[in-house]
Amino acid sequence: MTEDLSPAERYAAARERAVEQATALAGFREMYEFGLDPFQIESCQALEAGKGVLVAAPTGSGKTIVGEFAVHLALMQGKKCFYTTPIKALSNQKYADLSKRYGADKVGLLTGDNSVNSDAPVVVMTTEVLRNMLYSGSQSLLNLGYVVMDEVHYLSDRFRGAVWEEVIIHLQESVTLVSLSATVSNAEEFGDWLDTVRGDTQVIVSEHRPVPLFQHVLAGRRMYDLFEEGEGQRKAVNPDLTRMARMEASRSYNPRDRRKGKMIREADRERERRQRSRIWTPGRPEVIDRLDSEGLLPAITFIFSRAACEAAVQQCLHAGLRLNDEDARAQVREIVEERTAAIPDEDLHVLGYYEWLEGLERGIAAHHAGMLPTFKEVVEELFVRGLVRAVFATETLALGINMPARSVVLEKLVKWNGEQHADITPGEYTQLTGRAGRRGIDVEGHAVVLWQRAMSPEHLAGLAGTRTYPLRSSFKPSYNMAVNLVDQFGRHRSRELLETSFAQFQADKSVVGISRQVQKNEEGLEGYKTSMTCHLGDFDEYARLRRELKDRETELAKQGANQRRVAAAAALEKLKPGDVIHVPTGKYAGLALVLDPGIPAGRVNGHRGFEHQDGPRPLVLTAERQVKRLASMDFPVPVEALERMRIPKSFNARSPQSRRDLASALRTKAGHIVPERHRKGRAAAADDREIARLRTELRAHPCHGCDEREDHARWAERYYRLRRDTVQLERRIEGRTNTIARTFDRIVALLTEMDYLRGDEVTEHGKRLARLYGELDLLASECLREGVWEGLSPAELAACVSALVFEARMADDALAPKLPSGKVKASLGEMVRIWGRLDALEEEFKINQAEGVGQREPDLGFAWAAYMWASDKGLDEVLREVEMPAGDFVRWCKQVIDVLGQISAAAPREGSTVAKNARKAVDQLLRGVVAYSSVG
Predict the structure, then answer these.
(1) Long-range pairs for 696-701 at CB < 8 Å and ≥24 separation?
(2) β-pair type (390-393, 299-302)
(3) Ramachandran angles phi, psi of 56, nearest 5°
(4) For 680-739, how does the pLDDT look when each residue is reduced to its tens digit (9 = 90+)?
(5) Do residues 719 and 529 touch, judged by C-beta distance below 8 A?
(6) I need a surface site. Which of 79, 331, 727, 859 has the fewest CB within 10 A?
(7) CA–CA distance, 775 with 479 (Å, rounded to integer)
(8) pLDDT value for 604
């Protein structure tokens, strides 16, 4: 090719190559055995040109290459680079990768658990650590050139997302930001915001998966492709799946159909039996065996339950599955024994080590947050090495950890979201299936969904084909954030800073569309106003009178209905068992015997008003032998007892014979009585002076005599309806504008009331609060202020501090917890009392917990576990007492340790034992499984 070029063209090409060779990117590319993808090259070039970058690309596409180039640039330029990740496991993994590439002397690690070589030029850390550095003005920020924010889409996380925005807003302008995100549908919007707050930022979006993904459905013995073979973006759903779903929906046989005379022919039943033999949801061992036979292992099966993940491993073991040969088994045992050598034998037994090892040796494992961190890390290492080939995992595995597989299996498309069972979103589906296909190993990846009854192939195709994963800000000001901001910038500047958040950016952007609608409405209002103009007079005034008359009539009608409802409820409250009544309306209208008046608990005739929304609900026996609980709607008018009857003690409402006998006695006793018809009273509107006045004014108005009056009135009705809608839109605009700043103002007002702030000055109490990070920061500060923890031993302090971090996984977990006696119980009671006072203050200052701002109630559910562990009790005894998985126990202990560290830094140095005992409590908690589960 070069021979075809002219000398001038060859010279220009040579110069271009020389310029490229002189770039930092050229040297960086030589460090990798594979070539870089176009999106990686574009991102690296933008970085080298001094721009910030937002890289949005699918899981497994190699986004981290761009982060590693930022590390490379920092080392070349003699600057520092901080590489932040959302979770400690990912920080540990990245620290190991960078240490291997650049040498352990140049790379450090900072998480809540570990501090390794923290003065190194490259430091891997969790995002919270960097946020805390920014607020404390750490010296480590000097000479910081680059910050890599891996998994930046975490800013959507409702609990921790605000930290990402705090970091982005507060980093010095001289720092170049590298944001790495999963594929999000509003990357341009996020990039626009980054451009606003950080300066020149280039957005690079790649939809390309380096390993193509194929979607399947496994039903019975057959694996179906989800989509038909075909060209183009819009792929059709496999008609076999559609037919199967339709057949399953129509074949449901209801035995009661016989009673309706619908006889199902023998041929239909035979066809149904044949279909049923082909369609079923395969068992877990069957699925793994099938994937193994088709060469689709290693596989990750996502099950949205920890217990189900453990059960799946046991099912595979009981089925006799073996995915490893003898050589692989020996390698597994060697690695496992080396990684767990520090764990004492008695603890291994408690942790279910031998059952876990048996699964690993066979190539099968679970992976979830309830596991000991060491065990999880071993599973990850063995999976990457190909020594574990089937992993059953909860969705937490999808969050960033480098564990790609050839196949991903989803058992169900529904998961528990903490409040209810909900369908997984297209974004969640994309993230889970994104693990399938290992770059450089697999030619293609496979996502397999197990067939479930009532599955809709079209719904699944929508999940698989949709790329909607919008980034939504979860940013909310907190008490700690408020005092730190005011301390650094003063109130006015802090307010301005908060208005630059992504949350406010998105809110303001949504206002643009609403404002446009308001403008359109106002144009429409002008047109309507013209159409309702009357030549005889002011039709606007006439329409107002009509509307006032209608509103008054409606109001009186409502009052009348309410009075009738109250009278009916009062009458029901007077009923007693044995009263014979006439049910005036509804399905059970007619003669009835009251078996139970159904008055709500705690109600005594008339004394509690009628706040109970359903009112009394009497249980009655009808003349037709039915026993039913009636509702207030069955009694639109008051009802009175027509007669009294004795209810036999032997009466059983479930016995047909009892009902028949008593109903017969009811008809004999009262069947002849004709109930008195309820006479309607005179309508309130007939005597209302306001209605009389409005009708007089209406008839006297000039427009009343207009021939086109009703035509004008229709235009007037449209005008007022549109005006009402426009006012509502304007309120929405007002509600969304400056929302973050208004919340900040309320927080500042409360902190001023409590003497944490005085104008732009942060008081001593405020400086203490500035060192306390966490959901219950203000409660912790108040406990220090009031000396609640003074005189507690280290173990007792650990128990009390646990209430600041622990949250039961399910509301049902929050039964009365076991608590240490003596000082601990008293201190925890005092903490709850202080929380109650803060809760009342928050209500007064309109600080709403539902919006993610404010202090939740402290949870005492981990106090006993923390106390026992800090009191040197054995792991077996502690886990047996608290009935908690080892992984959860370790995680909560580490969070308690983290807050104890903050308390030791914030507590008074003189005249207080809290700081010293907090440090001792850390030492007493950081032992055994809690200590050796840390990776460094």
Answers:
(1) 697/545, 698/542, 698/545, 698/546, 698/549, 701/537, 701/541, 701/542, 701/545
(2) parallel
(3) -115, 115
(4) 666 666 677 888 888 888 888 888 888 888 888 888 888 888 888 888 888 877 777 767
(5) yes
(6) 727
(7) 9
(8) 40
- Write out the two tokens for 525: 């209002």
Rg of the chain over Cα atoms, rounded to whole angstroms, equals 36
Q: Output the six-digit token pair for 754.
A: 């409590």
The candidate with the shortest Cα–Cα distance to 801, out of 910, 897, 874, 890, is: 897
Residue 232 has, within 13 A of its CA and on its CB side, a CA count of 5
Q: What is the pLDDT of residues 784-811, one digit of tens each?
A: 999 999 989 999 999 999 999 998 765 5
Query: What angle is formed at CA 200 by the lines to CA 197 and CA 202, rounded to 5 degrees?
Result: 110
Instruction: List Cα–Cα distances, 738 to 196, 495, 722, in angstroms.
Output: 17, 10, 26
pLDDT in tens, 221-237: 788 888 876 544 557 88
Category of 578 on φ-ψ map: left (φ > 0), alpha (ψ -120 to 50) or beta: left
Q: Hey, is 505 helix, strand or coil?
A: helix
Q: Express each pLDDT in 175-215 by its tens digit.
A: 999 999 877 778 888 888 888 888 889 999 888 877 888 88
DSSP string, 729-791: HHHHHHHHTTHHHHHHHHHHHHHHHTTSEETTEE-HHHHHHTT--STTHHHHHHHHHTTTTTT
Give which of 189, 854, 136, 171 is closest to 497, Cα–Cα: 171
Cβ neighbours for 531, distance < 8 A, ≥ 6 positions apart: 712, 715
Q: How far is CA 361 from the centre of its chain?
A: 36
Give the integer Cα–Cα distance in Å for 249 and 241.
Answer: 12
What tokens does 881 get? 């007492």
**DSSP for residue 534:** B
Q: Decide: 598 and 631 in contact? Cβ < 8 Å.
A: no
Which residue is associated with the tokens 């000396």? 787
Instruction: Give Cα separations from 895 to 112, 164, 866 (angstroms).
Output: 8, 20, 11
Round to the nearest angstrom and report the end-to-end CA distance of the chain: 53
- Does residue 14 or residue 818 have the better pLDDT? 818
Calpha distance 343→348 (Å, rounded): 7
Q: Indicate the average pLDDT of the chain.
A: 83
- CA angle 125-740-832, nearest 5°? 75
Pair 586, 629: CB distance under 8 Å? no
CA pair distance 185, 187, nearest whole angstrom: 6
Closest listed residue to residue 737, CA positions, set 443, 485, 507: 507
Hey, CA dihedral for 639, 645, 647, 652, is it positive or negative?
A: negative
Residue 908 CB: number of other CB atoms within 10 A?
Answer: 15
Which residues 6+ apart lie within 8 Å of 406 measured at CB?
296, 297, 298, 299, 436, 437, 438, 441, 442, 445, 446
Single-letter amino acid, residue 306: R
433 vs 413: CA distance, rounded Å:
12
Q: What is the DSSP letter of 81?
A: E
